[in-house]
Write a structure and sequence with these properties.
Blueprint lengths: L12 E3 L6 E3 L3 E2 L12 H14 L3 E3 L8 H11 L7 E6 L1 E5 L15 E5 L3 H15 L6 E5 L3 H4 L3 H21 L5 E6 L2 H7 L7 E5 L13 H8 L2 E5 L6 H4 L8 E2 L2 E2 L2 H16 L4 H7 L7 E5 L5 H12 L4 H9 L15 H7 L1
Parallel strand pairs: 3-4, 4-5, 5-8, 8-9, 9-10, 10-11, 11-14
Antiparallel strand pairs: 1-2, 6-7, 12-13
């Protein structure tokens, strides 16, 4: 089998806020290693991570939530033998894992470890969560620490109780960890840009991991949130660039198209179908456009798609480097399928694309 290309010489880096910490613009999302939607064996997860490392991936993101600790354990198994190497690791705090015999709540993970989740955004809870992650990872270092899923999408009306605790005690703990040099950057890892914007009034955040809220399908965050990030030099890492599937699969297949972890509505399906028509016109792969689009914004430092099998590693590299003409982005804007104020990736001539393809 041919070895995958070494992408570390091709992928640019961007700095996280004012930290001096640089991340690859293409990262590795480790949620699938927690058996998201379907199970993979320990051997398969090891093979995927080994292949990703050999391909040049050096930016890894995991969380206690992913398989109730399983993703952290598997990610740590790879990185433990590579301590001292040039990689960036992020994980998340705010969930404590309690032994349960078996996981009563799976949260979309096919076969998580036997723990239930307890949310705790207090000072003590965040410190405990950080230490627990180090134990599961088997590492003495975490580079970026995110407070996970603090927002109404996760907690509903209960968020009125969680948010004040998180912004007072939780932020104090994270700020101390940063001040002591135990982490290099702190932020939120969420599915809502609104809670990030709200949190900016309570602390000095370096970055936000935003899943699905600045994508080829959604640019509402351009109105107020992203300008605030630019003004405060706060970086964005984009998770879920395919909006949980529909921007990777499109809507022409036989299966159900998922959008934001649920079957897509007729309105979303129609919008994606129109985008696909313009993709056809310019010989552009829908997934390539979805992967590349967010990075054109100056505040976006990295995109981290979830990668759960070896074939997706090479495919993702190819999508990331696929040539896309400037006229493609302009056609999306003209068709009102992309916000007219959204920055477009660096211009490429259509003739160059046809030659490359």
């Amino acid at each position: 089998m041919q070895n995958p290309p070494l992408i570390d010489k091709k992928i640019s880096k961007k700095q996280i806020g004012s930290t001096g910490l640089e991340v690859d613009t293409l990262g590795f999302g480790c949620a699938p290693l927690g058996n998201l939607y379907y199970s993979i064996s320990d051997q398969e997860s090891t093979a995927v991570l080994d292949a990703a490392w050999q391909a040049g991936f050096r930016h890894f993101d995991t969380a206690p939530h992913y398989g109730q600790g399983l993703s952290e354990r598997r990610t740590g198994d790879l990185l433990r033998s590579l301590q001292g190497k040039d990689y960036i690791l992020s994980t998340k705090v705010g969930r404590l894992l309690k032994p349960a015999g078996y996981a009563k709540e799976r949260h979309g993970f096919a076969s998580p470890m036997p723990f239930d989740i307890q949310y705790d955004y207090s000072y003590d809870g965040i410190m405990r969560s950080f230490e627990d992650s180090l134990q599961r990872l088997g590492l003495d270092r975490i580079d970026i620490l995110y407070m996970h899923d603090i927002g109404s999408d996760t907690h509903g009306s209960e968020n009125d109780k969680h948010f004040p605790i998180a912004m007072k005690g939780g932020y104090k703990a994270m700020n101390e960890l940063r001040s002591q040099g135990l982490v290099k950057a702190i932020g939120l890892g969420v599915n809502e840009y609104q809670v990030c914007e709200q949190a900016m009034d309570y602390g000095d955040w370096d970055c936000f991991l935003l899943a699905g809220r600045y994508s080829l399908l959604e640019q509402e965050s351009l109105q107020t949130f992203l300008p605030k990030c630019q003004a405060r030099n706060c970086s964005i890492i984009i998770g879920g660039p395919y909006n949980s599937g529909i921007l990777a699969t499109g809507v022409r297949g036989k299966g159900t198209a998922n959008y934001n972890y649920a079957p897509a509505s007729a309105e979303i399906i129609d919008r994606v179908a129109k985008i696909e028509m313009i993709c056809d016109e310019y010989h552009v792969t829908l997934a390539a456009a979805a992967l590349q689009f967010p990075l054109a914004h100056p505040s976006v430092a990295s995109v981290i798609p979830g990668l759960g099998n070896i074939s997706r590693i090479q495919n993702t590299i190819d999508l990331f480097h696929q040539a896309i003409p400037n006229d493609f982005w302009q056609s999306l804007k003209a068709a009102d399928l992309l916000d007219k104020d959204a920055p477009a990736p660096t211009a490429v001539k259509a003739s160059d694309v046809l030659h490359a393809n």
